[in-house]
Design a protein that fits this description.
With 73 residues, the protein is mainly alpha-helical. Helix content is 25%, strand content 0%.
Length: 73
């Protein structure tokens, strides 16, 4: 997901991400696990976005960024 298998994503700075860091496969796995439990039994026909708020950035645009550091791995 981040091409950084041995790196803790909480230590990587990404100023263009609303959460300030890239995501982690374990965070996606947590949702997958939840969806397999009885607590999620009434959830149907929806798309759940797990992107740390990047979809929100498209709505407001990235014009406020000073550089392209958010794209660097």
């Amino acid at each position: 997901m981040t091409d950084q298998e041995d790196v803790n994503p909480r230590t990587v700075k990404r100023p263009g991400y609303p959460l300030g860091r890239p995501g982690d496969a374990r965070e996606v796995a947590g949702l997958v696990v939840f969806l397999t439990t009885p607590a999620a039994a009434f959830i149907t026909g929806t798309s759940l976005v797990i992107d740390g708020g990047l979809e929100l950035m498209a709505a407001i645009g990235a014009h406020g960024l000073q550089n392209d550091d958010c794209r660097k791995v």
